[in-house]
User: Which sequence fits this backbone?
């Protein structure tokens, strides 16, 4: 349990077949690889969608590098009978299979869960889809954008007088990928006790529902119709100050959850005289006078820099944060010092920043980042070394368009 | 592996002490409870922050019900030496402790990880914080709003001509809570093999970084400065159509990822004559003529309802989705049919909808939702039945303000 021990990675020895595409499946497999699992990324002959975009260069290369570090990569054509046999051979030697194809695709290919459990009853088969493997919306096509629409995210993002808006990051892809990781590891834990594998399933749209807790609370209440989109204010318009305020070099977020935050903020602002002002005397009063409260705060922030406000926040224990742009985030001294972000030399992108796993296991050194494998880079290593095929057999598979 | 078996829940027999507050820690413990773990929610004598808000009624009650179903609840004053002893007694009989206090709080109380590992070397100690247990920003106060600012979410959410904006749901709280669950179960898996417990750690700000993959890609590219906030358009302005379009009764999200989507969309719109129009001939052309592309799509959507567009999307295999409001989401026939959403009778809220776990374990029935426990509801059951205290000892603890 001590940080100075050097224990093995927690998932050491776990073998994963990663059929994941884009973000959702590959992120679950990334978390496994970074916890020490042996992850084989299996792609169609032309590569998974992000690989194809990688070939175009520009902005699409970095995601491939971010999510596929510490995995080996092979190609496999599942539209051939021989390809399906090879997948079964891999699955028979593996603990986990991850796929985020649309419902029914694996069955149509002849490598559905039922078939793979016959090959390996100890398998953890992990399916991630947009809407799930059952239900009336099962077959709706799903991407991060459409799930943000259907799940409710868009309806609560944006300003009251503006249209519904998506969250900028691909939150639906990633929160569902994270749930998928949790489901897989839960089934692996169970298998240690029971010896049995299991099918686990995650639907993107369902992983969003809990995140709407505050917003749903307003629907449930008898306080009348829920507030419209609230911009940067509290989703229930029930806390003040709670907003993003302009300052000299950008914006800062400030929130006062308890009265001590407000009284400390008054001190930081040099506005102690407002302490007994009835408009601001408690949270309920400030909510009633929300525009005036925000104006008082903005009067202070607008003449300061983000750094000055952040320093005042430390001194007075205020929950604030600068609104950072992505260049600042990518170069965060904090995340680099913690090893969450690492500089690596990438075969095509040069010197880039890649993330480590946000899952931190004290007592084991973090795994170092590395370039993602090239398309099919480990074909000989896996098909030869793991499945025992000869060089000439592998050559024939390549000539036949199987790998 | 068959769905018609009825296997036990995968985490059956796992005992969890849940000191979690608000969303992050309680959500990780919720996922454990819904996978069959025995979760004891431990609260200060006046309740955790969401419990306090629950007492105020209105919108704050539902989150308490959503995240604390299937847990037992006790009170415990960790600011008393006897309270700390009781926590240690509980930990000695448990597998997991979850806490999302600020860094250092548990140590100051005298029940930090080191102390608890002395009590139980097999413990999985799970810490979730805003910025992590190390690094220069460790002690910055963190809530969902401030982490959305510091992590980069706000900088990429909103319109190009508008200010930075938060995502409406509490995505930072929940995505970090989901990661926390993954870290805990990983350590439980490992413990089955090694017999050793572990400290695991998750920092909110770090769990956001991977979600920015598309957006970070633009920073990394040599295509010039990254695009500003892009509203509902693609974060890298590299795909078109990719937007939210007004229709007769709201909005719909439409995305064309591959050329077949576009040609099918043209058919659905009855605009086959545009198939060979050089402005729309491929994605690159449509990106160059993004405003015109969006105008063509909007010309079609504006005269239709969301339902009509959704039906056309099924017929033509288009990735679209209606922008749903929260009343629609809460009543989703799809999620109710799948058991993700359940109606329950709540002791104070009456008939409400609560979520099940988004983690689905095929072969085991979903756990039914139930009212969250009242503050201290299981004090006698736990302190008596589990720790073996007598009724009079429990009475004395209550009189002394320990429980």
Assistant:
């Amino acid at each position: 349990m001590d940080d100075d021990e050097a224990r093995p990675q927690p998932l050491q020895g776990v073998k994963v077949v990663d059929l994941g595409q884009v973000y959702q499946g590959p992120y679950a497999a990334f978390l496994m690889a970074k916890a020490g699992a042996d992850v084989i990324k299996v792609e169609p002959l032309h590569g998974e969608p992000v690989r194809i975009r990688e070939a175009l260069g520009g902005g699409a290369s970095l995601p491939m590098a971010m999510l596929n570090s510490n995995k080996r990569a092979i190609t496999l054509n599942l539209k051939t009978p021989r390809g399906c046999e090879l997948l079964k051979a891999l699955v028979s030697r593996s603990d986990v299979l991850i796929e985020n194809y649309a419902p029914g695709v694996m069955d149509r290919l002849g490598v559905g869960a039922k078939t793979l459990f016959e090959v390996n009853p100890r398998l953890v088969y992990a399916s991630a889809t947009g809407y799930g493997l059952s239900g009336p919306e099962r077959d709706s096509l799903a991407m991060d954008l459409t799930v943000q629409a259907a799940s409710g995210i868009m309806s609560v993002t944006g300003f009251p007088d503006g249209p519904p808006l998506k969250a900028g990051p691909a939150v639906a892809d990633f929160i569902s990928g994270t749930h998928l990781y949790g489901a897989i590891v839960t089934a692996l834990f169970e298998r240690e006790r029971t010896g049995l594998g299991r099918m686990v399933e995650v639907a993107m749209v369902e992983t969003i529902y809990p995140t709407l807790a505050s917003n749903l609370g307003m629907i449930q209440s008898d306080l009348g119709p829920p507030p419209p989109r609230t911009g940067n204010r509290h989703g229930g318009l029930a806390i003040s100050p709670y907003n993003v305020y302009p300052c000299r070099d950008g914006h800062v977020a400030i929130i006062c959850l308890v009265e001590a935050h407000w009284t400390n903020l008054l001190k930081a602002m040099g506005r102690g005289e407002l302490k007994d002002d009835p408009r601001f005397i408690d949270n309920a009063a400030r909510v009633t006078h929300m525009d005036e409260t925000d104006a008082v705060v903005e009067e202070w922030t607008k003449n300061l820099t983000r750094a000055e406000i952040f320093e005042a926040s430390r001194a007075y224990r205020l929950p604030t944060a600068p609104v950072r742009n992505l260049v600042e985030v990518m170069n965060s001294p904090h995340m680099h010092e913690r090893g969450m972000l690492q500089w690596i030399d990438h075969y095509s992108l040069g010197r880039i920043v890649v993330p480590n796993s946000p899952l931190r296991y004290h007592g084991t050194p973090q795994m170092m980042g590395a370039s993602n494998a090239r398309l099919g880079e480990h074909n000989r290593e896996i098909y030869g070394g793991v499945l025992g095929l000869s060089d000439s057999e592998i050559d024939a598979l390549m000539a036949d368009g199987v790998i």
